[in-house]
Amino acid sequence: MSEEQDRQRLEELRQQLQYHNYRYHALDDPEISDQEFDQMLRELVELEETYPQWITPDSPTQRVGYAPVEGFGSVTHAVPLLSLSNVFSEDELRAFCQRVERWAGTQVTYFAELKIDGLAVSLSYEEGLFGQGATRGDGTVGEDITQNLRTVRALPLRLQAPATINVRGEVFMSRDAFVRLNEEREKQGDAVFANPRNAAAGSLRQLDPQVTADRRLDIFCYSIGATDNQELRTHSESLQYLQELGFKINPHAQRCADVDALLSFIQYWATERQGLPYDIDGIVIKVDSLELQEMLGYTAKSPRWATAYKFPAQQVLTKVLNIQIQVGRTGALTPLAHLEPVNVAGSTVSRATLHNEDVIREKDVRIGDTVILQKAGDVIPEIVSTRSELRTGDEQVFVMPSHCPACGGDAVRLEGEAVRRCVNTACPAQRLERLVHFASRSAMDIDGLGPAIMEQLVNAGLVTTPADLYRLHKEQLQALERMGSKSAANLLQAIAASKEQPLPRLIFALGIRLVGIEAARDLAERFGTLQALAEAAEDDLVAVKSIGPKIAASVRQFFAEEANRELLDELRELGVNPRSQATAAQGESVTALKDLTFVVTGKLEGWTRSDVEQLLRQAGANVTGSISGNTDYLVAGEKAGSKLEKAASLGVTVLDQEQFRTFLQERGVSFD
Fold this sequence. Notes:
The chain is an alpha+beta fold. The strands form six sheets. Strands 12, 13, 14, 16, 17, 19 and 20 form a seven-stranded antiparallel β-sheet that branches. A five-stranded mixed β-sheet has the order 2-11-10-3-9. It is globular.
């Protein structure tokens, strides 16, 4: 290629990488795989090494991530939280070690640990108390996600010693939690996450910490950014110290005397990683000596004393035996590919979703095709592409049906949507899925009432609507397969107990299209009762913070249907009629604190911080975890700490507990 062609290719790579970097880090919605991104980045690095005069400060090779998005406060890292360079082969790893030892001038001991596929975070503790947590961001400035991190149960809020320390960790989602989350999202009619890493990142960046808490996130801590402990000499000692303080440390790590020991560790985990309950995408290699780390220093974007060996994604060939349609709770018709069973990433796969007709068309998947299969995030089977050159001519083009395969009703695709849906509300497939959703853990949480028992109830004609569940009696249940007297009694007790579930769960359980659990919480807080929600005008619905025009229209359409109104009446008569936790008086004052931003800190006598924050939100306020120029009031209890000083420096009004009570009373907000 000519120099001008190289220049054009360099600019093209920069634009593509900047775009995909934004999709990955800022939106948590990547369009390409990590392997494709790494390949483009390596090509750009090679071009810039050939033409160093063309390197610019905004090149993707000169930065770590992406700037924080709006919605969270910014945190400047006291010590930059940089990403790692990558190696992809034995030769590249040996070259890395040779460079390190040449710079060090001595034999080097290394430390190898699993590269958890999650989201890097910075954790700051003052005198043993967790004070602030942030994302990596661009390596220098991250997003303040303190409140969301507090919901991660493995994260210690108080250390075993009064240490002042900054710790780096990786928040992740286990494979089981990921599968459960996607199953719930599919039932809700929401888009599923592509892999556990995206799910963890999206969960940490929720504006409502309760959503994060429901996602079952976990964390491993892997290094110290800054500490008042001056006795540590090696990285392995640092991990031991973190463990003594109460941090969760990954147990699968090893000191390695040389590159051959590193390669043995890598080869072992390349084959054994499928036995782990979480995803790893490589091995992190570090110089063990902290003194050598300091001497080796950093480039503009990564440490010279560490790198990541990246595993390639495992891909296999298999054949599409058939494509069949599944009908979901909302009537969505989802094409499912039935495959020749094949082992991929540690398990046998015989099915893979094709999502919708656009995906089938874009990938040109036909019945009889040989296809490339992988597991997205090593969990979800995904058809990557077809091997069209292997076609024999006997392959069949799949056409989405115009009628529902379960009931024969019309299947239509609305403008602007990718999914085709059955419009028959009496469709038996939808009915079963709606009932299963109603009883599910995130909805009415009826213990023991799973899909198999629900299907028996439906097939026996005992249940056609959720209200029928509350009319069941013991003799009917005992007639079911594998249902004895004790099991029937336990199930009836669980059904009766579900009447006490709070209003957000009931709203979610009704299966209103596009209404997930977060939207259900906001609707419950705003309207207080199911009847008030059913009578709400579309303009009132749109005024709720998480409700857009599409969700508002879906809610109105649901309550406009006579069958749904009759269901509400039946549930009410059967004793299923919860109210929001907000009192009627609070319901009248949901706008009393509108557009005001609060931070709550310290110990409040007789109140929990979460109760105070919930009260403020119910009254229309914004509640954040850190003081900024946008904060209107700091509610400060005992031992409020450094936030008092920051509030004073920014001119934020501080309310102690008695002042806060008076403040609420003057605005008609009551706290029982």
